[in-house]
Amino acid sequence: MTKEQFVTELEKIGAIKFGKFTLKSGLVSPFYIDLREITSYPELLNGVANLLAEKIKDMDFDIITGIPYTALPIAALVANKLQKPLIYKRKEEKAYGTGGSIVGKFQKGDKCLVIDDLITTGASKIETAEAYEKAGVEVEDFVVVIDRSANGTEELEQHGYKLHSLISLVDILQQLREQELITAAKVKEVEEFTQSLNKPKKSRQPNAMTQKLLEKIEEKRSNLILSLDVETKAEFFQILEAAASEIVMLKTHVDILTDFDDNFIAKLREYAREYNFLIFEDRKFADIGNTVRKQYRSGIYHISNWAEYITVHLVAGAGILTGLFEGLENRAGFVLARMSSKGNLINETYTRRCFEIAKKYPQWVAGFIGHGHSVNDISRFKAKFPGEQLLLIPGVKLEKGTDKLGQQYITVEDAINGGADCIIVGRGIYQADDVHIAAKTYRDRAWKAYKERE
Ligand code: S5P
Predict the structure, then answer these.
(1) How far, in Å, from the CA of 282 to the mean position of ligand 1?
(2) Could you tell me the distance, in angstroms and rounded to a whole number, from the CA of residue 216 to the centre of ligand 1?
(3) Residues 337, 338, 339, CA angle at the centre, nearest 5°?
(4) Measured from the CB, is residue 282 less than 6 Å from ligand 1?
(5) Residue 429 and residue 297 share a domain
(6) Model confidence over 206-253: pLDDT tens digits?
(7) Domain range enclosing 443
């Protein structure tokens, strides 16, 4: 059976219809596609399974799944034809008995190809993939029988997945038009309808401090943030002198210094002016609003006087942002939405709640600190940002690795390819034999990957 024959048959059995159909969302659609009943037509079911098997036979995967209900019998047939194991996820949670919601055998790290009948938007596919990934199954590719979406491919791509489709809505319209089964006016109506479903893009309203860092990145042609975690002023300025020309921003932990005094801040500001970089104190505020306000604006460090950016944990809730930033200008925070250290207690729900709070206070959140185990993992994380906030990634070295205290490193390229706007590098630079060369190497590698990503 060819694709064209398959489409002709679908039209004959009423699986593709044109008219007026009220969708679950309340929208009135000029067409309707429903593949549920093809199980009643063995030839049709077999035909589509052959077409799919042919399409995917050279792709890289260990197991197959179909999204219940409609795609499951199709996927079972495809799996059988290619002699690949099939797994599937229950649609309903099991109320009793053993085992999780995934049925069938798999090993952690198995690559699973996901078959579905249709795609309208990518949302439910992304949900499915995330559920499998939680169980240790890797998902990269989706194959759908009919792509009736306006932007499903782009949506999945933004989340790090690839969409392959057997037949597109455009193919169907063209074929049925040629066979004079629909009018030109109908074709136009359907096209306009699918275009109107195109989700509006996230509104672009970057926080002024987001914009400031973005501009500095372009101006200095660098997305390197140096984390200068050393204990004496002498060492601090010696390293800064060697690295300053390469960095867009300097990250401090001012409370590490044993000989801090007011001259330190004056000198730091001089360097920032001369070498054109921004200042970021990684204080990781985490207390109630009233306390952080004092910690930030008072004490011996007076952080709010000199640090343009700080880091914030939202564990205490949104009040911390008001406590920190209310009444101040040109100051913003980077929220720790994920951490680089092994076994850290941040989970998906916590990350999501950080995004929700940031959405409510866009004026105070310039971006997020994040990390991830792979390029895809990071890009999916970034895709969930509520706006145009920036992603800064610490735990970066030239090679993957760990330290003895649980720090986990990913490479410069993985961080940038995943979506990092800046990388944060500490020991990779300040412990190098030649600090200048190390800083330049990180800067060049990050910039190259950043420009190639565009
Ligand atoms: O999750 C995080 C968040 C931060 S801000 N993991 C981190 O490592 N950091 C900071 O980045 C950490 O406090 C340190 O200052 C820097 C990483 O240093 P490195 O020496 O491991 O590169």
Answers:
(1) 9
(2) 22
(3) 130
(4) yes
(5) yes
(6) 689 999 999 999 999 999 999 999 999 999 999 999 999 999 999 999
(7) 208-453
